[in-house]
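Could you help me review a protein record that somebody else here produced? Here is the record exactly as it was handed to me:
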Amino acid sequence: MEQRTVIGLGICTLLIASGFAVNGNIGLYFNIAALFIVLGGTFGAAFLSFRTERLSIVFRVLLASYRTRMKAPEEIVEILVDLSVKSRLKGILSLQEDENETSVIFMRRALGFLVDGYTKAQITEILNTEMYFFKMRREESERVLRTLAEICPSFGLVGSVVGLIGMLAGSGDVSIIITTIPIALTSTLYGVVFANLFFLPFAVHMRERTDHELLLQKIILEGVSAIESELNPRVLEMKLKSFLTPSSRKGRIISAKRIQERFKIKPEAVKSASTGKPVLQTVSEL
């Protein structure tokens, strides 16, 4: 999880706990019976509604989304422009080593298709299909979380009804009333808190992450298609930067000095196989 997310979550948790504690004994807000009713009812309904495999997938996706850092779009643009320059200098087959090194699975598959000689149309069709079903799987997981967020308050109401029934049944016994009133009130509290502090934010986070990953995948698709078409790297840079926000478009990725350092090119020794010109001269024409 990102450091800023952890700090923000910690501050908000502290504020919420302070709000509970400001009126005195914080233990008044904990009730095991109410907790069992809300959580037991919510997850019971979840198991009746969805396959166990689907619930397991949702858990794993959530865990991974908070534990792994996604690359920023500008990082992906820089990688693709570097790959474009490399393919111009060393040929398409030289990208095979990058296929094994990249941590982005979608880019790894795209580079694999490129190295294996797939046509632009084939690459586009396969990757578009993968993007479509990736989005559908994520939308299904998001729907599970939103369903849990809708169910939670209902079982909070169930707990309240259970508490009221117990209170009415023991209307002549003060000890029973004291025992059942907390169940009635804390059940509603738990239902609202679990729905709006956990399940709904989880669903929103999953949607935001999905949109970000789809943006990265679209950038990768455009970049790999351009590399296959041997588009000029400078043109590719301008094209891919159109996906970025204006504040992220500053600076130029392609420069003779940067490429010389990036690919360890010796200007006096290395020749371009395709043109017979010195590599730096070739780079200056990119």
About this structure: The chain has a mean pLDDT of 82. The chain is about 75% helix and 0% strand. Residues 31-254 form one domain. The chain has two domains: 31-254, 255-286.
